[in-house]
């Protein structure tokens, strides 16, 4: 029986590859979005304007303090009641961007806050604009602090894409669910799902370890 | 060139600058001294608005620094500031440290900025250290690069906030030499320091502060040899015995 199911699994493997492709798409578009948004939020979070910083702080706490699956449900099932109807794929991207940017925001703000005040003062005194101070002086130095946990966060975000299966995005985990109905060998099916996730995450885990050693 | 008119500043309840009136003329070298916490660093940090004042006026080169509307970027580009802890950018070489502001604030082409940077490094006696990172330099060398960084903007005023206080004794001389040369070239300078030798050699005027007030000003010789106030006399005796 095992052999038979394995045979079936091999037959529908292309279906898994489609799921993997969707996972990769959601993951990498989201990593991009989360990074951009996370840096913008993080810079304001660490900024001088206490009001803006607090508001971002509240946003981050709300996002970090609620389960991702609940956030997706709100976006996909509750927003339509207020007239905002999104397809599953854009809804998944939106939910990922909101969740991931909150985590990256804190990493970026932590990195920026680790830069001594004197660096800012030296840059200010020489006439650099705020944007130039960030671009040339503060962010390049903060990257040493930001990069290792950032790549670690990427791994977490890639795995979190599995949650978007709940709204029907046909990604890897969803493919696993559907398959297990026809091939009732849960261990076999989900081992394959796990291996495929691992294939994407492992290079990033290696990169994170490497960066941690190099930046230390 | 720099004018303080009835300047007041508080940190919370602490009255750090108490009704300061002061004028620094073009080409003048002013040394500011006083016990720690007397407000001397705050005083010079107000000149390029690293600190904001709550009352009064500060006018630098006809720009009202205290006003919100003043063009700070342009003003700061005309004022070099040297910190006690150097604050070189650790991820850049000496040359990159010096070139950063000329290229990005004054929009000088890179090749020209590099020429200027090399010239300034020569001026502070470090032409062989252009590709060194700050961590590879001694404290005295770092401070000289910091001075070169300030000079590369061709400033009209140089401000020094205890430039030798963080240095090992054997390195103080090399930094002071650079400053003495600068003074003799006619740079307008405002220097917070307790280096009496430097003050006597190049200062046009010494200003003594305590508890946020200017207690006494005078020619360096008069000030150090015959201080008019008891507080100044007390302070001088303390820095002399150490």
Characterization of this structure:
The complex is a heterodimer of chains A (about 220) and B (about 240). Chain A has about 220 residues and is an all-alpha fold. Chain A has one domain (about 10-215): Orthogonal Bundle (MetI-like fold), CATH 1.10.3720. Chain A has helices spanning about 1-10, 15-45, 50-65, 70-80, 90-115, 115-125, 130-160, 170-180, 185-215. In chain A, helix 2 packs antiparallel against helix 7 and helix 4 packs across helix 5. Chain A is elongated, with a radius of gyration of 21 Å. The model of chain A has no long low-confidence stretch (mean pLDDT about 95). The mean pLDDT of chain B is about 90. The longest helix of chain B is centred in the last third of the chain and has 16 residues, at about 170-185. Chain B has a 6-stranded mixed β-sheet, with helices on both faces. Chain B is about 40% helix and about 25% strand. Chain B is of the alpha/beta class and about 240 residues long. At the A-B interface, helix 6 and helix 7 of A face helix 2, strand 6, helix 3 and helix 5 of B.
